[in-house]
Amino acid sequence: MRISFLNLLKPAVWLLMIGTFFTACNRLDIYEKNISVPDYKWQYAFQPGFDFDITDTASQYNIFIVLRHTDSYRYNNIWLNVGIKAPGDTATTAQRLDLQLGNDVKGWEGTGMDDIWEVRRPATKAPVQFKKPGTYHFTIAQVMRENPLPNVMSVGVRVERVK
User: Of 90, 112, 133, 134, which has the highest C-beta tally within 10 A?
Assistant: First the structure.
């Protein structure tokens, strides 16, 4: 009886497929949404909003700002106003952030492909615990001195549960 290499490989392929199926069914505790900046020119009036639901108020969460820009962006940083409104609240809490995008010595930070760069920076110094369950609303506005701010492609929010 002759055993071919392909016949030996079949059980391994089935195990790999079954393992992939079960790991693919795990729920990711992540919210991420990115919104494109019209014409890559971020106007003061353009303040994208992000809504995400929190059901687990016992867990802690990391919150990130995700920014994509071109290589032609003129600054090493970007100043943002990040607003958050909790469920049932009428007021929005605002925080001003200085996101470093690069420096003159090392160049752009983050990941890049050709002339497009993406950086993900923490919006808070430590993980946060949301006090109320429900839908939270984030807004992000650029507050640089230049309006419109050219060469910014998209901005987003990423929220992930701390394991």
Answer: 112
